[in-house]
From TrEMBL, chain A:
The lineage of its organism: Bacteria, Pseudomonadati, Pseudomonadota, Alphaproteobacteria, Hyphomicrobiales. This is Phthalate dioxygenase reductase. It comes from Methylobrevis pamukkalensis. Pfam families: DmmA-like_N, Fer2. One of its GO terms (molecular function) is 2 iron, 2 sulfur cluster binding. It is an enzyme of class 1 (oxidoreductase). Residues 234-321 form the 2Fe-2S ferredoxin-type domain.
TrEMBL record, chain B:
The lineage of its organism: Bacteria, Pseudomonadati, Pseudomonadota, Alphaproteobacteria, Hyphomicrobiales. It holds the Pfam family HODM_asu-like. This is DUF3445 domain-containing protein. InterPro entries: HODM_asu-like (IPR021848). It comes from the Bacteria.
TrEMBL record, chain C:
This is Uncharacterized protein. GO terms for molecular function: 2 iron, 2 sulfur cluster binding; metal ion binding; oxidoreductase activity. Keywords: 2Fe-2S, Flavoprotein, Iron, Iron-sulfur, Metal-binding, Oxidoreductase. The keyword Nucleotide-binding does not apply. Residues 138-181 form the Dimethylamine monooxygenase subunit DmmA-like C-terminal domain. Residues 5-127 form the Dimethylamine monooxygenase subunit DmmA-like N-terminal domain. Pfam families: DmmA-like_C, DmmA-like_N. The lineage of its organism: Bacteria, Pseudomonadati, Pseudomonadota, Alphaproteobacteria, Hyphomicrobiales. InterPro entries: DmmA-like_C, DmmA-like_N. It comes from the Bacteria.
Amino acid sequence: MSSTARALAVTVADVIEVTPLVKRFEFVSTDGAPLPPFSGGAHVVVELPDGDHLRRNPYSLMSSPRDLSRYAISVRRDDGGRGGSRYLHEQVVPGMAMTISAPVNLFALDLRARKHLMIAGGIGITPFIAQIHQLSGGGAPFELHYKARSAPLAAYMDDLAARHPGAVHACCSDRGEDLDLDTLLTTQPLGTHLYVCGPERLIAGVTARAAALGWPARHVHVEHFAAPPPGLPFAVRLAASNLSITVRGEQSLLEAIEEAGVDAPYLCRGGACGQCETAVVACDGTLHHHDHWLTDAQRETGDRIMPCVSRFTGRLLTLDR
Amino acid sequence: MTITFRTETFRDDFTFRNSPAGIRRFPFPFHEDGYMYSVNIEPHRPGAPGSVFEHGFDVDEHYVAEMADRALVLAEDPLRCQALPHMDLASWDYLELVMTTKARDYPELFTLETDGDRWHWTNRPLGIDDRFTFGVTSTLPCPPLEYIGRQTQGDHCLLDQRDNNLWMDAGMVTTQADWSLDFDIGMNFFEWHAPVPLAHEMGVFQRAIKFLTSIPQGQPSRRLNWTLTVNPRLDTSPENYPKWGPDKLTVTPDTIGEKMHLRVELQTFWRLPRSNALVFPIRCYLLRFDDLVTIPKWARRMHRVIRDLPPELVTYKGMSRYHPMLVEWLAAHDDGAPTSPGIFPD
Amino acid sequence: MIEPTILSRPTYGTLEPRPGRAHLLIADDAGSAAIVDLFARAPADFHESATILSVTKDLSGDEAAALHRLSPATLTACPDMPAMLNTLAGLLAEAGMGVQIYLAGTEPLIGQAMRVVIEAGIDHSAIATEHRGSLARRVQCVHCKGFMDEVTTQPVTCAHCGLSLFVRDHYSRRLAAFQGVCINAEDQSEIVPAEEVFR
């Protein structure tokens, strides 16, 4: 029993350069029907058929949940990554047919909140844009703090600040600005929920301060956008399918399993949701866990792996798949 | 397909009956000659034409009468329908799911016309014709969950998803097998299932929660659950236990066939996309034992299941008083022949 | 010590000082000793950021005096539960995120205070609790919806509708009560004698 979101056929309606590093891609459904509804914080998994290598990358929806005529994602170009963002930036143009998944939300607003306090770092702004659209229709107040290297690189900052005066606060490091986290976290009304999306260091820093300042764990929500890191190629035996495969350097283990025609479940493809968890039958080498799902104790035993982000070095990894 | 809606009652004179076609389409819950808990969840895909699985929300010959019974329950006890404040969006989500699904599957019964947020809903069996603004509660005659719950067979629980758990934060519950929404509202998945024996130790709920929290939108799942009820009574709530409890004393070898009913819940699970909540409709089907034993396969299997039921489940399902009597009555309808796999009649 | 039975039956811990800039401690007479024990384990300046709210039968009794000796920044003693719950709601309206909530005493105290804290927007899992004192239960009759405080017998006769109720371990945080279900609904001629079990 496991789940994978269903596929949607879409057409690229627009590609817009937002900053020198960020492009926005807008999709309409190919059959002209409205796209499925979604909630703020949801992502879609975009299929990127780059030659004979099919990547599937998750991106947060940033369009309004109340506008189902098109979906929008924003992608930051990462030249050091596995090539998914480069493919989107260089190859994807209006009119192209693409396949995306139905939306899945692993970073939903807690609607019990009396107030939503959002902290974004860089391209981590995107889920918050959809959430702010959702909250603009009524609901608890929100406050967004947006950290970026510089104003020109802070995608959508001006637009957000103009539309939500007083609720959106910029924090640009080139202007010497830094987030006064302690003041922020000690001046929130009871019932506030905190949301963080951005680089790993930001998430770790904010969650640690929140815990030290007495914030309940269930009032703190984070979205890691861990992309699968590239690495060295490695050999895998898929025991249940009786197949031997090689995972290429720029490919994730999950992608290699899919390429071999083996059905594998997933939702987030970012090491967060637990759907793709796979049992390790034998491991002649070292597992490299990059997920946020397994506990330290589970990693210690080495009897399972999250193939969407994690890798292996050594002679042979045998999986129950 | 046209449905002839029956005029019948689920209380007092109990005029509820299944038509011959209604008997054959009953969702018999046992796929083999025994029963134990399992996470028996499967995709809720459209099933065979005419079966209760044909459509996402089955509408059958009891629809109008069941809605009339629900109205009676709500008039006496408005707390059967409640939503915690943060569940408003999920309530609209559910209204949308039911209206779009029913209008598509039963165009002769239901029509939905939308123009942006302006919606026009027609429910011909219940004589409802309303225009409202989607998302604006003041444009409906009552809150959205109550509105759609009064027009949809079965109980409906809206489960908020937080912290890798599901929280029973809203519901319309008038046809329940002895649990109280008013008491359980706000509980998480493990808490509201706490009184169920054996299943926790078996890890059933731990496995189920992992699956349920990852159900994607547009891919509902289903399972069948069952119990026995004396008389075709929909409202076997704890609130009204003093009203239906004494029915159990009326069970004798002579009345079992007429009074004893197999009560099956078709439970489905759907992701609600606008709120990220899950809706858990629990649709109740009743089948009189006299009617059940007209299907030889079901007669044989029912005997074997009830005979071999673990004592904890005999108690939990409320049949301690008459379990031996039931086994004896059913034995007379079991010729010992083997049964074919699966739930459907031969 | 309250043993776990079914998963909806709350269990309680031992109060330990937690990180936070403000500490709100609520106790009845039975729970005041748990607050005293907590202070003994807490940093020396803990009392400076502590607010104690108590419900006590005797405003000049030993328990009230023991709490007073802890020198909290604020100490409010209330003569009954409704007064305490009202005061609590008022304190929470002024509080901000980061405040730590500690509840100590009997289950009716813990449960009813917790309900007020949850209604103020705090997740129940963030509330520290320690059970002290009697095992008397607050019970809701599922039939007439009436509440009874301080139930000590099994079964108990509903003070409102008169039915004989079996007190289940099934517990509702939202109602701050255990569930009472008619014990002889099937045959009211069956009389089950009451036994004193929740002491």
